[in-house]
Design a protein that fits this description.
Layout: E1 2-7, H1 11-26, E2 30-31, E3 40-45, H2 50-69, E4 74-79, H3 80-85, H4 87-92, E5 98-100, H5 108-116, E6 122-124, E7 152-154, E8 156-157, H6 168-172, E9 176-177, H7 180-192, E10 197-201, E11 209-210, E12 213-214, H8 215-223, E13 230-234, H9 243-251, E14 258-260, H10 268-274, H11 280-293, E15 302-309, H12 316-329, E16 333-338, H13 356-379, E17 385-394, E18 399-404, E19 409-413, E20 425-433, E21 438-445
Parallel strand pairs: 1-2, 1-3, 3-4, 4-5, 5-6, 7-10, 10-13, 14-15, 15-16, 19-21
Antiparallel strand pairs: 8-9, 11-12, 17-18, 17-20, 18-19, 20-21
Helix pairs in contact: 8-9, 12-13
The protein binds iron/sulfur cluster.
């Protein structure tokens, strides 16, 4: 049987898709070369924005045609929209065979057996308050597929924050933390399978706690795993950037110079209405502290963020504070969004969203500002030599692509008569910089092994 996974949304979903793929691998299934080649399609969904959900309904409509083309094909929906809609999903799309919430992933193989035995429209969205002993968080994972980056390791699920615009706490539940020994087991297992870089993930990953251990302690412990060359984490909440975490960023050599630190708005008034529980100036001071602490590391710290425009009640003056924040924080990049009202969130009671054309125009202005700052920061890297970890190789075109320690996308020609492979480390001299990528030439690398070695 061949499977195809369609993944939407955040890195938590990417991790869940990787986990499902690992489980299917273990059951003897293999990835389909294309959708048409697949016997099983799993759509791993996102419900954070209304537009994401609308898009997935469209995808499901197209998959009805896919299903009809060959009898016996199986269609499953997983992720946040599956959790949110539950039974309503199969009522609206009765051709969906399986609806599975994020906490039920370990049950995927047995549920697929039930579908194969003739049961249809199965719904399993039971939330997990404490991860059971047999969950993926406790059992070692199946042998993973060939190395593919980024490779995520989940350390925290759910969220205890109550941001008024966000549906995540109601879909993913309260925070649960994965025991340190199990995190270490998974990292060791990945290294045995050839991985050299992992990214620890959680919705508010730096709020992690395990017994007396905080997130900084987890980082120190993971960094000791032999064979690990690079360590990252995401997504951080400004409230949990502790002095210990700032020190860890400075002291752990393999911890990369990169942090994703959502700010959401530059206006204190809007931040209050969003219940973010920090002020703009506090955010800036955290970024300054992180930059100072990492000043001696190989690359300048890259900071990225999430920003929302058009939140209910956002005035032009509030928006100006967000534009100013781009200059002040010097973000390398930002994920910018128009506010999307979500069912069950407190922001619905805060009044009407900013009219769409106004919000759209603000989004365009914000994107211009973010791009200008990001481009200027990338240009500062011209002439420098950056270490990259190769994550894509196109032998036909003779080019490779990798990520620097600060998560910059770097393209370079594969040196003449050489070969390259995903997961190799190399050094690239940068001679071109744009807003979203850099280019250069390989100056020293494992990937310089002679062809045929
Ligand atoms: S921190 Fe706020 S925005 Fe992030 S997942 Fe939690 S509630 Fe949502």
């Amino acid at each position: 049987m061949k499977f195809h996974l369609l993944t939407y949304g955040c890195q938590m979903n990417v991790y869940d898709s990787d986990s499902m793929a690992d489980l299917l691998f273990e059951r003897g299934m293999s990835p389909a070369a294309s959708l048409e080649d697949a016997d099983l399609v799993l759509v791993n969904t996102c419900a954070v924005r209304e537009s994401a959900q609308d898009r997935i309904w469209g995808v499901l409509g197209n998959l009805l045609t896919w299903k009809k083309r060959r009898p016996g094909r199986i269609l499953g929906v997983t992720g946040c929209m599956a959790q949110n809609e539950g039974q309503a999903l199969v009522e609206r799309a009765d051709y969906v065979d399986l609806v599975l919430g994020p906490d039920g992933i370990t049950r995927l193989p047995e549920l697929l057996d039930e579908v194969a035995a003739g049961r249809r429209g199965l719904v399993d969205v039971t939330p997990e308050s404490t991860p059971p002993e047999d969950s993926l968080w406790h059992a070692p994972l199946a042998a993973p597929q060939p190395p593919r980056y980024p490779r995520f390791v989940s350390v925290q699920k759910g969220c205890n924050e109550k941001c008024t615009f966000c549906i995540v706490p109601s879909v993913r539940g309260f925070e649960r933390y994965r025991p340190i020994p199990h995190v270490l087991d998974e990292v060791k297992m990945l290294i045995e399978h050839g991985y050299r870089e992992v990214t620890l993930i959680g919705q508010t990953v730096n709020a992690y706690q395990y017994g007396d251990a905080d997130f900084a302690e987890l980082l120190y412990r993971v960094a000791e795993v032999p064979g690990l060359a690079r360590l990252r984490f995401t997504t951080s909440h400004p409230r949990w950037i502790t002095p210990r975490l700032v020190s860890a960023m400075a002291e752990i050599p393999i911890l990369c110079e990169q942090i994703h630190l959502p700010m959401q708005s530059g206006s204190d008034r809007v931040l209050r209405r969003m219940k973010r529980r920090y002020q703009a100036e506090e955010y800036f001071q955290l970024v300054d502290a992180l930059r100072r602490a990492t000043a001696d590391k190989p690359e300048p710290l890259a900071v990225s963020c999430d920003l929302i425009v058009g939140f209910p009640g956002e005035t032009e003056e509030d928006f100006q504070r967000t534009l100013e924040a781009v200059e002040r924080a010097q973000w390398d990049s930002a994920f910018t969004f128009m506010y999307s009202p979500r069912p069950g969130t407190a922001a619905l009671r805060l009044g009407e969203p900013v009219p769409r054309p106004v919000a759209h125009e603000r989004l365009l202005r914000l994107n211009d500002r973010v791009k200008a700052v990001g481009t200027a920061l990338n240009r500062q890297l011209l002439g420098r030599t950056l270490e990259i970890l190769v994550d894509d190789v196109n032998e036909e075109k003779g080019v490779l692509c990798g990520r620097s320690r600060s998560m910059k996308t770097v393209h370079a020609p594969i040196p003449e008569g050489r070969r390259a492979a995903v997961g190799e480390l190399g050094e690239v001299a940068i001679d071109f910089a744009a807003a979203h990528h850099l280019k250069g030439r390989v100056v020293q690398a494992e990937l310089c092994a002679a062809r045929g070695d």
